[in-house]
Amino acid sequence: MGKLNDFEKEIQKVAVDSIASWKKVDLHNHTPQSTCYTYKETDAHDLIAKQIRETGLSAVMFTDHSKLPEISLVDNIAKKSGALVLRGIELNIFVDAWNKPEDKVGKEMFFHLIVGFDPKGAQSPEYWVTDLTRNFTMETRSSGGMEIQGIRGSVEEVCKHLSEANAIIIPAHLHSTGGAFRSRSIDEIYNDREFLYLAKNYFTALEVTSDSTAAFFDGKHSETDNLIKTCIQSSDSHQPSELGWRPSYLQLETVNFGEIRAALQLPFRTSRTIPQFPNSSVIGMHVKGNFLEDLWMPFSPHANVAIGVKGSGKTSALECLRFALGTEVPKSRQESVANHLSAILGPAGSVAVLIKRDDGARLIVERSTVDKNFRVTFEDDRVEIFKNPASLHFPIHILGWHEIEQAASDDGIRRIYLDTIAGKEKIEAFDKEAKRIGNEIRIKHDIAGSKYNQYREIYQQVAEMQELRKGLQELTDANLVNLKNQYQASTNHLQALQTTRDSINNAQADIISHVAKHIAGISSSTLSGESPIASQVAEAIPLIDTIESEVKLGAEGIQSHMVKVVGLLDTLIVKVQEKYGEFSAKYSEEVSKLSPEQKRLLESHRKLMDDTKELATLEVRKAELKSEVESVLNELVLLCDRVAKTLDEKSSLRESRVSKFNALLSPYDVRLTVIRQRNSSDFEELSRKYANGANILNELKSKLPDRLAHLCLKKAYSNMIADLWSGYSVSVFDYGDFTHFLNVFEEDDLQIELRVGKAGQEYSPINELSAGQRCTGVFPVLLKLSEGPLIIDQPEDNLDNRHIANVIAQALIDDKKRRQMVFTSHNANLVVMSDPESIVYFDSDGTKGWIECQGFLATKDSRITKHVLDILDGGENALKLRIQKYGRA
Predict the structure, then answer these.
(1) pLDDT per position as a tens digit, 160-187
(2) Measured between alpha carbons, how far is residue 594 from residues 34, 467, 862 in Å?
(3) Are residues 519 and 650 both part of a single domain?
(4) Residue 482: which H helix or E strand, with range?
């Protein structure tokens, strides 16, 4: 876990106090100094500090009834707990239930007003409490058997008096149940006219005890005049163990009074429940290159905006992120993006990104200009190399400059949106199944084509042989073939007899010399002479002499016999020739009756019979191949049908999901429609590469029209089963280019429409609209896509400021809770009104770019505020001049 932790430590060095994060706070609690506190032991302070630490509270405010907690107590608890501890007071204000009927309201009616003071304010909290008692009448009333001291006077006047104190003012215990006449608090006054007036103009926030009450202040309820107001909850603890049991959460850059007060005034910076976080996010990035030399950039899991003048590096950072994660770049911009990256990173630059996936896993993804593979380090320090960004399992949408409106002309971009809406895993499963069947079709098609070509070759051979044999039928019927065979056999016989006679005659002339060759060197004279064994060897001499005499005698006898046989054969041949002459004359007579063609066939009969001797075998093989081809074609018919059903199911899923998704887009006047099964970009690209194959497919679709190419192909296969010699077989099997189209399918397209008020046309397709209208139509789609972070370079381009302020900014505030967003921007409305948790100010000297400042626009005193004002609003003087001209502060 070393490398990943080291990377995160470097990121955190930059991120500390520069990115807003959710802090747990509890702003209504009591101390042991309060008479109502139930735990009075000496270790109370220690237990309170321990409870703060254990519950993870970052800030606590103590608000005893009608008096401030002692500063020594607060300082002691702050030191022991490490949290920010604020001093406040819980004022009892006798209101006589405001405008309730006097005859139904007793004088004991009052409610609690929580007031928290700035510890670094111009005047101390003690000053303001004393000032209140000096300027307002204090009364003591009896309530529930207790003496209650409170302020007798107007709540509005109290709030006005505290305005200079820059205090936090919160009415406590706001309910939507119970009875205003039975409660010592402010139950069932959430829709009281006077209370709503105070809530709108004076209260910092409202403390509620139920979500049902808070719901009345979401800006959508007429009962509360559509008022939008922050609602928090607090523990109102009266003993240490109760502290932190009902906390609220605030988005803060640093934990201080000013940021807490600012967060309470903005409902989107507060939460009564554990805040929602996106499932996946980019945690941080490190760039090493030419323009961005050594840039460490942390990201909030919510909203991030990079600002700066043109050329400062904000777009460069976005492109580095896109490069590292391998997000697809539109074809029209690939060259320019590649050139930009080359300038940013140089010949040996690299980018490393720390990400958190949906499954909770964290990993570092590294990529360099030298090695375009993805080097991934996991939490256990395991390293793997991936070639495909899909292997990262980190879906993300990254759009460069002006790429939003390209959805109008790029079906590939639209299809990414479509599949995200439908669910990429489901769509990928359909695509995988279709591809598998398509590959099977391609294999089966090749098998069928091979068998068909064999069948066609044998078919032609059989046809030719049958035609040849058909010409011999007349000869066969006239018995001439048999006569021809007899003539040929007789000629062969005569020739064989004459050849035999000649061979014997030749052999008798050579027989003696031939035999002599075999006994050459065999002589008894070689055995004569003197030696110690001569007498024994001499016994062999008569034996050898016997062989020589016998061989000579035998050869002469054989020669004599052969001469005799030759004479007899000569006599026999004369007789045979006479007989052959008679048969030959008869044969000639029959042949003279034939036509010239019959004579030719008769003369070539034997050769023809030899040439067609395999006819029977080939006919059997032809029948077998026909059956085999038809069997494979039947399989292809079924496979084509399965492909069509798979594509239909995919389209139906897309239509169903898009229909539901349209409900999210309705407030933005945007509508999506699935256009079923058009030619895909893959098909178009293949068509340019394999024109013959595309022509064959288009011809099939024209002759056998159907909504899918594979249904047309299914018809072609079916027609071939009925007639293997149909024209379709020649088309689909004779051109190898055609097979490239067998596993390429039609794709659905996503039509994006915007309601623009054209006469007679409620919605208009974005390809018919201006660039600004295109962005207006596409941007809501991007915002509502739920899968992975959304990163866009200057999304405000072509959007008007009113649309950004009224629609886009609020959408960003709502959506950043569930999805990380990263933008670059020059638009003050987009940046300020969307309240990004991290604003990064880039600067450059023209050669190098860097991060000058990073922070959260928490208050006017935040360190990023000046940069936002200068870059986006032209500086303080420009803002003052606009205010002066508008006549509004």
Answers:
(1) 999 899 999 999 877 654 444 444 444 4
(2) 140, 20, 119
(3) no
(4) helix 480-518
Specify whether the CB–CB gap between 298 and 831 falls below 8 A. Answer: no
> Which among 594, 615, 636 is the end of a domain?
615
One-letter identity of residue 99: N
Rounded-to-integer distance, Cα 652 and Cα 650, Å? 5
In a domain, 273, yes or no: no
Confidence at 612, pLDDT banded by 50, 70, 90: low
CA 92, CA 255: separation in Å to the nearest integer?
Answer: 29
The structure's pTM equals 0.75
* Residue span of the structural domain in which 737 resides: 425-463+623-750
pLDDT tens-digit profile of 296-314? 999 999 999 999 999 999 9
d(CA 484, CA 487): 5
Domain tally for the chain?
A: 4
Regarding whether 359 and 308 lie in a shared domain, the answer is yes
Task: Report whether 233 contacts 248 (CB < 8 A).
Answer: yes
317-766-648 Cα angle (round to 5): 95
Q: Which of 323-332, 366-375, 493-502, 862-871 is predicted with the least confidence, judged by mean pLDDT?
A: 493-502
- What's the start-to-end Cα distance of the chain, in Å? 54
Among the listed residues 837, 855, 819, the one whose alpha carbon sits nearest the alpha carbon of residue 23? 837
**Burial of residue 788 (number of CB atoms within 10 Å: 0-12, 13-18, 19+):** buried
Query: What is d(CA 198, CA 162) in angstroms, rounded to the nearest whole number?
Result: 13
Q: Is residue 510 domain-shared with residue 593, that is, in the same domain?
A: yes
% of the chain with per-residue pLDDT over 70: 89
Digit-coded pLDDT (tens) for 695-714 = 888 888 888 888 898 999 99
Quick one: tokens of 534? 């001569």
The answer to whether 298 touches 369, Cβ cutoff 8 Å, is no
Do 46 and 135 fall within a single domain?
Answer: yes
Both tokens of 549, joined, read: 């005499």
Residue 359 dihedral angles phi and psi, to the nearest 5°: -80, 5
Contact predicate 246/235, CB 8 Å: yes
Q: Which residues contact 195 (CB under 8 A, 6 or more apart)?
A: 98, 171, 186, 189
With vertex at residue 372, the alpha carbon angle to CA 370 and CA 377, rounded to the nearest 5 degrees, is: 105
Sheet with 281-288: strands ordered across: 295-298, 281-288, 350-356, 362-368, 374-378, 383-386
User: Does position 326 have pLDDT exceeding 60, yes or no?
Assistant: yes
